[in-house]
């Protein structure tokens, strides 16, 4: 198992189809492809070929370049002498990802790490199903997940479930949501409603608002009426900075603020300086423990002269995982059975594991925002996993 001392994370706004400002990660119809000619999976010196598919050109090139640098750090830090890592440009499109995957397979890649976007990962499914190399993508879109194409990004639904668990453990039984009328907002609300029911609580109010609207007063007032009661209520606000400022201001005007309710959120709040939003102070969100990635961030800054993008740790952990799989047996073991080891793996972003259906599970902490860059872990991330998945 990877060294537990090498810990470290979604992007910010969730980061969510794999990264903020990136192409949408909804699942498109698979592209028609033919299987590429496959080269030798090992080099002349006996190293196993591993492909790294990243957007090294296009609008996300800066992210891809930093993820490549993090991958190179992992090779050095873990001493993964068994690996021959090669980067391929998956660009901004599904077509580019298919071409980079085909090139990697022609070169003999035994395992593919990446691509970043969900649409790009989906486009690789036909090639994987034709006997291609397994894919561990950096997307966090659970719609992409399936056997042979795993998602390594930190999916949003488990974040909601984790922070709901913390609220219930703190004695809160009433929940509400104020969310944008988007596919992401709707998914977060559905997750809230289903998990609160499992935990024996009740959702007393849900209001959606136009994601582009400037006047949020009406839905905020409706939510304020719905959450009235004697017991405390936790309000889910799955909105990233800076938009969250206007959202919280509307709620405060309607009588809902951090003194009256417990605000809860997702990894979209896991950004530097989130505490500068004073109305978020005291709010909770679920994410990997930031202390675990602090050393990685310091070393990356020292090596490359700038702090790493939030997604860089995904590439680091993926390469460290590949190194472990390469040591399973002669020539490595990159099978679905090896990847989905139920004990999981340890990385900079904490413990994680993959399931046969392509989804992943993360050991997440619950973090309280205290102002500026200061946060505190109020519920530590588990160090391992129960036998069954938590979702």
The percent range for helix content is: 25-40%
Number of strands: 15
Spatial strand arrangement across the major sheet: 7-6-8-9-10-14-15
Q: Which structural class fits the helix and strand makeup?
A: alpha/beta
Mean pLDDT across all amino acids: 89
- What overall form do the CA principal axes indicate? elongated
β content, as a range? 15-25%
Task: Outline the low-pLDDT stretches.
Answer: 1-32
- Our Rg estimate from Cα atoms comes to 21 Å
Order of helices and strands: EHEHEHHEEHEHEHEHEEHHHEEEEE
How far apart the termini lie comes to 24 Å
The biggest beta sheet is recorded as:
7 strands, mixed
Contiguous helical run count: 11
What's a quick, concise take on this entry?
The chain is α/β, with parallel strands linked by helices and 391 residues long.
Account of the protein in words:
The protein contains 11 helices and 15 strands. The chain has 391 residues and is an alpha/beta fold. Strand 12 (350-354) and strand 13 form a beta hairpin. Helix 1 (61-78) runs parallel beside helix 10 (312-326) and helix 5 (156-169) runs parallel beside helix 6 (183-198). The strands form 3 sheets. The protein has a 7-stranded mixed beta sheet, with helices on both faces. Strands 2-1-3-4-5 form a 5-stranded parallel beta sheet. The chain has a 3-stranded antiparallel beta sheet with strand order 11-12-13, covered by helices on one side. The protein is elongated. 32% of the residues lie in helices and 19% in strands.
């Amino acid at each position: 198992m990877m060294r537990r001392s090498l810990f470290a994370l979604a992007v910010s706004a969730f980061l969510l189809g794999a990264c903020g400002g990136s192409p949408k990660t909804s699942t498109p119809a698979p592209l028609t492809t033919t299987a590429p000619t496959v080269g030798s999976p090992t080099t002349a010196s006996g190293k196993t070929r591993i492909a790294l598919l990243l957007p090294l050109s296009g609008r996300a090139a800066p992210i891809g370049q930093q993820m490549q640098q993090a991958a190179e750090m992992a090779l050095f830090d873990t001493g993964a002498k068994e690996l021959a890592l090669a980067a391929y440009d998956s660009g901004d499109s599904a077509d580019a990802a298919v071409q980079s995957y085909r090139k990697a397979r022609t070169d003999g890649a035994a395992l593919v790490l990446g691509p970043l976007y969900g649409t790009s990962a989906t486009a690789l499914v036909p090639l994987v199903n034709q006997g291609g190399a397994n894919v561990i993508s950096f997307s966090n879109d659970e719609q992409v997940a399936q056997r042979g194409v795993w998602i390594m990004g930190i999916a949003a639904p488990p974040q909601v479930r984790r922070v709901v668990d913390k609220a219930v453990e703190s004695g809160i039984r009433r929940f509400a949501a104020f969310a944008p009328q988007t596919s992401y907002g709707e998914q977060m609300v559905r997750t809230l409603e289903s998990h609160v029911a499992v935990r024996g609580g009740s959702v007393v109010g849900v209001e959606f608002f136009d994601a582009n609207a400037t006047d949020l007063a009406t839905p905020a007032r409706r939510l304020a009426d719905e959450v009235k009661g004697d017991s405390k209520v936790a309000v889910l606000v799955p909105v990233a900075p800076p938009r969250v400022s206007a959202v919280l201001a509307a709620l405060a005007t309607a009588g809902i603020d951090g003194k009256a309710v417990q605000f809860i959120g997702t990894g979209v709040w896991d950004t530097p300086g989130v505490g500068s939003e004073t109305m978020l102070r005291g709010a909770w969100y679920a994410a990997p423990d930031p202390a675990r990635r602090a050393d990685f961030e310091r070393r990356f800054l020292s090596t490359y002269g700038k702090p790493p993008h939030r997604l860089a740790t995904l590439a680091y952990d993926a390469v460290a995982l590949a190194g472990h799989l390469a040591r399973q047996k002669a020539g490595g073991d990159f099978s679905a059975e090896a990847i989905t080891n139920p004990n999981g793996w340890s990385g900079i972003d904490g413990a994680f594991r993959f399931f046969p259906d392509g989804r992943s599970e993360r050991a997440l902490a619950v973090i309280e925002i205290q102002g500026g860059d200061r946060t505190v872990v109020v519920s530590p991330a588990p160090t391992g996993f129960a036998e069954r998945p938590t979702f």
